[in-house]
Amino acid sequence: MRWALISSSLILLSSTTRAAVFRKFEELPTVSFDYIIVGAGNAGNVLANRLSENPAVSVLVVEAGPSDEDVLPAIAPFLALGLANTIYDWNYTTVPQNGVDNRAIPYNRGRLLGGSSTANIHMHQYGSADDYDKLAAITGDSEWAWKRMKKYVHKHERFIKPAEVADGTAKGYIEEDRGTDGMVPISLSTYRKPFDDLVLSVTRELPEDFPFNPDTSGGDNTLGLGWVRQSIANGTRQSSSTTYLRSAASRPNLFVLIETQVLKLLPTGNSGGKPAFRGVLLSSTNPSPNYVLAKREVILSAGSIGTPQLLLLSGIGPKEDLEQLNIPTLVNSPSVGHNFSDHIFVPYWYEVKGLDTLDDTFRQPDLMQAAIGEWMASRTGLIANGYSSQIGFFRFPSNTSIFDSTPDPSSGPKAAHWEMMFCNFWLARPLPVPDSGTYITLMTSLTSPVSRGFVKLASINPLDEPIIDPRYLTADYDKKAMREALRVLKRFASSKTFSEYIVGAVGSSGSEEDEPVDEHIRKNLGTTFHGVGTGAISPDNAAWGVVDSRLRVKGADGLRIVDASIWPFVPSAHTQGPTYLIAERAADIIIDEYQPISLHSILRFARNVWNSASFNFWGSSTSDIHVEL
Ligand SMILES: Cc1cc2nc3c(=O)[nH]c(=O)nc-3n(C[C@H](O)[C@H](O)[C@H](O)COP(=O)(O)OP(=O)(O)OC[C@H]3O[C@@H](n4cnc5c(N)ncnc54)[C@H](O)[C@@H]3O)c2cc1C
Ligand SMILES: *[C@@H]1O[C@H](CO)[C@@H](O)[C@H](O)[C@H]1NC(C)=O
Ligand SMILES: *[C@@H]1O[C@H](CO)[C@@H](O)[C@H](O)[C@H]1NC(C)=O
Ligand SMILES: *[C@@H]1O[C@H](CO)[C@@H](O)[C@H](O)[C@H]1NC(C)=O
Ligand SMILES: *[C@@H]1O[C@H](CO)[C@@H](O)[C@H](O)[C@H]1NC(C)=O
User: Which positions in this protein are listed as binding FAD (predicted)?
Assistant: First the structure.
């Protein structure tokens, strides 16, 4: 798509003023707060909201980027990719990737209020129940298991039922699983096109390969192809900023400092033999250094790149790496920045005939302007929705030969190995849109990958981009799995439904041989920007891992991580939903820790007793229920 066209039409939208947003450190009324949250992103704003619910507690959120207010591509869903490489992006690029012909791959991250929840492309799921159960198994903390985490779905989402329901079986949501009064409105596409019906009709034609999924939110029901859920309402983006942050903005105990980068964590003495980090150094135009202090704790929500970068800059990380840069090691934490785990994706383009695609809309400025005009007038149409209206989550059969050499890497039988997405146009990344012709783009993504990479410092300058090396396709399994996924995708493309329209595959992906297919994969592989793992959770006494099961940085005091980086493996879904759920539980953990005797803890005690009773009823053990007063 021609994003330049779109960014030239940045038109101011009506403003909603938010209170308590400061642009300069000097404007803050105090330098000391109960909690300091680093990063007003996907996770950070959840904490900002939940922690400031208690009016007796003061909360400061520090965000490097500017406000998201009036930023058209942050609001109009279809224009989202227009944020890339603007002042709202960190503009990261991976180091050249050996596995993909030494290409360096753009690694965008939102750098504005809402973080990547403001820059993402709106797809919203939670991941499989197995992902959460694996988290519980890894940490030994059963509170991370799905049966305990799914209550946060209801705190988090406010599902908007689609207005028109074509037929009962295809409505796209399971009523009783949906949240109705949570924080973030979630909807299904409101822009129906013939292509949607074709995609869904494949679920009826080839139900073995592409079963219909009545609700793609995840949990116990992850697999199959169905309507994708989008963090969109009334045709506008719903980010952590427009929801969690905005609804708390008028609280006098919540302070948001934007356009200010945290450069470093400050050591603030020792407690219990551990160095404490209850202060942060801030970037500033003022010549004297500026810092703020936390009475309770500092919470890192700077994301999977920003969080390890800040830890390393502050002397928390692998000793050898820190020594190389002459950074004194305050906490030797060998896993910081390691085990980076991400979802790779590859687009496959098919030329089509007789199908009304969007290619001409993107080629003709007046058509695009008309679409933007419709959105401006009524927040409807093409621009009011995301890029793919459906999503499919699939498993490889257990007898596939790829499991001969690598044990099944998925977190369990409910979790997907791979995923499909669908666009009725030539998705332009990384190849430019051809000047003529009509196309569809079918995409595969690996949801349970094996390759692991890392994030390291390039220098001690906090303003330098860190080294990002995801090591895409370095695991043999990932190469074979991408090939295998394409084999299944080809069954989709050659379905009776689609073979009526498809003229042929573009490029070498149509080949039956491995090498041309591998070449297409290497040339076109990208990321869905779901990196996690660099601040991984692990068992409390394990030598590996960065945080304990309550998300406290191991070896440090007064410091916690709450963002996507804590996932020790990438969940089998797009990562905003899993990040929201983690953050919701983290808020409960933090609130509980600081309320030793209160009505809240008494209620919690009563709730635990109730829960253990119901556990017994279902025949489960109660030994894993922790009751704390
Ligand atoms: C282009 C794109 C498309 C995506 N599409 C989807 C999708 O469709 N569905 C989905 O589920 N997920 C998607 N994702 C992934 C998802 O958005 C992220 O996994 C998730 O938002 C990460 O949340 P987080 O809280 O860990 O980090 P972020 O939301 O990135 O928050 C980190 C915040 O910290 C700030 N920060 C960083 N360093 C500092 C510092 N030193 N000082 C002050 N502030 C700092 C950042 O500016 C940012 O605001 C996409 C991501 C991108 C980039
Ligand atoms: C990203 O690139 C854009 C365009 O070059 C630039 O304006 C912006 O300042 C960059 N972002 C950062 C964080 O440097
Ligand atoms: C959407 O619009 C309706 C009707 O104007 C309004 O009641 C609702 O609050 C809006 N929702 C969001 C999330 O803006
Ligand atoms: C990476 O994660 C695995 C567990 O999945 C762990 O055993 C290993 O020690 C981790 N490596 C590092 C460097 O943290
Ligand atoms: C795997 O099992 C299915 C169903 O039992 C069978 O049809 C298929 O041929 C098997 N594939 C391989 C590679 O053995």
Answer: 262
